[in-house]
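Your task:
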Amino acid sequence: MKRDMDLVRNLLLEIEASEKPALYISDLISADRLNGIDQPTIELHLKLLIEAGLIDANQKQGSSTVGGWYVRRLTWDGHEFLDTMRDPEIWRKTKEGASAAGSWSIAALKEIGTALLKAKVQSVLGIEPS
């Protein structure tokens, strides 16, 4: 199964938006932003987000919740990545840049998104961010 960076972004947005102390897989499956995404695909992407250090989550065996997943929060890096990719226009341009560069790594996406965000700040505020 391939990594879907749109799903990564949408999962991060969903986790950030939650008011609950923990999100379960059933919460994510039923979220409008994740409509139509099956449980195995969401679980794979949760594992990838843990590996990337973007979320604090676990999968408990034998849990009464579907799949036993619970997501506690975004990590600092998760917030940083999401803050860079939040704007839909920045996200669209970041994906275009990643396609042109041939790299869809988290690090490459963050670098491209950061450069685009800095350019936007400069054009809006007239100052060059550091």
